[in-house]
Design brief:
The protein has one domain (2-137). The two termini are 19 Å apart. Strands 1, 2, 3, 4, 5, 6, 7 and 8 form an eight-stranded mixed sheet that branches. It is mostly beta strands. Helix content is 6%, strand content 43%. It has one helix at 93-101, and strands spanning 2-8, 36-47, 50-52, 60-65, 70-76, 103-113, 118-126, 133-137. The longest helix has 9 residues, at 93-101.
Length: 140
């Protein structure tokens, strides 16, 4: 599994993943150098001179890009509480709230554009409503 450092500027969405885009023409197809499973090792939001880690310093997550232009992302805080009952159906309201606030997952299709070093995610189903299309600049 490849490790990925994630960094985002204020103009990007909360989960703007830094991905180095290889040299190739603009395409509505999957980028073969992006295809694979990536371990998310950090998410930092930068707004001016302020930086924050919305999922904490020990974020856990993965993002998968396939050769057919499909993707899936799962992100969690590293300090999510363990459900005392060991059954998610009987979690306390406090446990459920902490887990919900510290988790995000979504999937859909993606395209890359080498000309402007960007990717566009078409989000089909998010755990939380985060929009249906997100354009992200690639961080190199």
């Amino acid at each position: 599994m490849t490790h990925l450092f994630v960094s985002a500027a204020a103009a990007m969405s909360l989960l703007a993943f830094g991905v180095a885009m290889p040299a190739s023409p603009a395409s509505a197809q999957a980028d073969k150098n992006l295809v694979g499973a990536w371990t998310i090792v950090s998410i930092t939001i930068e707004q001016g001179d302020k930086k924050s880690e919305p999922y904490g310093p020990n974020v856990k997550g993965t993002q998968v890009f396939d050769a057919n232009g499909r993707f899936a992302v799962v992100v969690m805080r590293g300090d999510l509480p363990k459900v005392a009952s060991n059954n998610r159906e009987t979690a306390t309201p406090e446990e459920s709230q902490q887990i919900a606030r510290g988790s995000l997952a979504y999937f859909g299709s993606y395209t890359t554009n080498e000309t402007d070093k960007s990717m566009t995610l078409q989000i089909e189903w998010p755990l939380w409503p985060i929009g249906t299309e997100q354009r992200r600049s690639a961080c190199t």
